[in-house]
Design brief:
By secondary structure, the protein is α+β, with helices and mostly antiparallel strands. Helices cover 26% and strands 32% of the residues. Strands 2, 4, 5, 9, 10 and 11 form a 6-stranded mixed sheet that branches. It has a 5-stranded antiparallel sheet with strand order 1-3-8-7-6, with no helix packed on it. It is rod-shaped and about 120 Å long. Keywords: Disulfide bond, Glycoprotein, Immunoglobulin domain, Membrane, Signal, Transmembrane, Transmembrane helix. It is found in: Membrane.
Length: 225
């Protein structure tokens, strides 16, 4: 017995061809996208920055490298700190540029960066750069940048040049104060010496009584004093 399907259940030729081709096409190429917040405000020279990433591919990344860059223009940006993550090492702590220190913690789909040792003049635009090191293919992407605003702390230490200048001014002031003190001591010594000489003279001549001339009248002169 021949069995026929109703026209509504039969597939068009184009749909059947599409299904056969879709099963034979390779999967989409891996891709990487990095996002980060627009603005973050620091506190006491420290700021926390979340660098989120989205990876599409057959396998999850097993080794990532994260790099923090500073600068308004991507062409002239400065590397602040960098380190790598693996499944066995999900955190890091490295020394950055100058007094800046970076700590990182790998989380699901993001890297938590804590940057410390910042000052008011470190306020700038910072970029998160994430690289997929393994498995292949190698991928590298940047975020759109985050404005890190670092308020100037009133008790923060002065820059080295300003500290040197203040030390120089302090030395000059100390030298002037020493010179003034030496002059005052010299004047006091002179005055003390003069007073001492006056007292010595007074003691030397103070015991001499006034001489009184007396006449016994033999020469016709009266007594005079």
């Amino acid at each position: 017995v021949n069995q026929t399907f109703p026209p509504s259940l039969s597939l068009p030729l184009s749909a059947a061809l599409y299904l056969s081709l879709s099963t034979s096409l390779p999967p989409l190429s891996p891709a990487l996208r990095v996002t980060q917040p627009y603005r973050v405000v620091g506190f006491r020279g420290e700021v926390e920055l979340f660098c989120s990433y989205h990876h599409t591919g057959r396998h999850e990344p097993e080794e990532l490298r994260v790099t923090l860059y500073r600068g308004v223009y991507r062409e002239g940006k400065q590397e602040v700190c960098t380190s790598s993550f693996t499944h066995n090492q999900t955190s890091f702590q490295v020394e950055g540029v100058g007094e800046v220190r970076c700590r990182g913690q790998l989380g699901p789909g993001r890297v938590n960066l804590t940057i410390s040792g910042l000052r008011g003049n470190d306020t700038d635009l910072y970029y998160c750069g994430i690289e997929v090191m393994y498995p292949p293919p190698y991928l590298r992407r940047f975020g759109n940048g985050t404005l890190l605003f670092i308020p100037e702390e009133p008790g923060c230490s002065l820059p080295e040049a300003q500290r040197t200048s203040d030390m120089g001014e302090t030395s000059v002031r100390l030298a002037l104060a020493g010179l003034v003190a030496a002059n005052i001591l010299m004047v006091i010594s002179v005055v003390t010496f003069l007073l001492y000489q006056g007292l010595q003279r007074k003691r030397r001549f103070g015991g001499i009584t006034q001489m009184i001339s007396q006449n016994d009248g033999r020469f016709g002169y009266g007594n005079f004093q």
